[in-house]
Design a protein that fits this description.
Length: 190
């Protein structure tokens, strides 16, 4: 079983690479954003609870998010592992994820950060914004703000995983195939 946390600034290619990795290694890709949208759209108990916080403009408490992730893990007993995307974002969340996986006799095997130059990512996102319709991909100041938030929140997480010798940095520039190959080399060492 392989359990990965995928890091990267917006536009770094996490979603694209997660799709290749899930196929190659029979992993379940758990995108926190997708899990939130699914639970809210389907009116689950956790979705209704999360929506109550979101509607007030508040952050959804870690406990609610962890319970959603726990449900996703439990829904996929045949997976050969999981790719966590968008979670954890804080040390407290990383500890909660470790505890959840420990309950299931699992662990995070590696965290992989897709690294790319900000200017390259800004161009990628502006291009994506032309076809995606996402307003947050069409405004350079909003993009830079998302990068600042990533830098602020993710830096402590890198240290958390480096202390466990589970942090890997991968060059996120190049062809999709080249980047997938770099990620596969990291996974082969686990």
């Amino acid at each position: 079983m392989i359990n990965l946390v995928l890091f990267g600034k917006p536009g770094a290619g996490k979603g694209t690479q997660a799709n290749f990795l899930k196929e190659k290694y029979n992993l379940k890709h758990i995108s926190t954003g997708d899990v939130f949208r699914f639970n809210i759209k389907n009116g689950t108990e956790l979705g209704t609870l999360a929506k109550s916080y979101i509607d007030k403009g508040e952050l959804v408490p870690d406990e609610v998010t962890i319970n959603m992730l726990k449900a996703e893990v439990e829904k996929n007993p045949d997976a050969s592992g999981f790719i966590f995307d968008g979670f954890p974002r804080t040390n407290a969340q990383a500890e909660a994820l470790d505890d959840l996986l420990e309950e299931k006799e699992m662990k995070i095997d590696a965290t992989i950060a897709l690294e790319a130059d900000d200017e390259v990512l800004i161009q990628r996102l502006l291009e994506r914004g032309k076809v995606s319709g996402r307003s947050d991909d069409q405004d350079e100041s909003k993009i830079r703000n998302r990068f600042d938030e990533y830098n602020e929140k993710t830096a402590p997480l890198m240290q958390y995983y480096k202390k466990q010798d589970k942090f890997h940095s991968v060059n996120g520039i190049g062809s999709i195939e080249d980047i997938t190959e770099r990620l596969s080399k990291v996974i082969a060492t686990l």
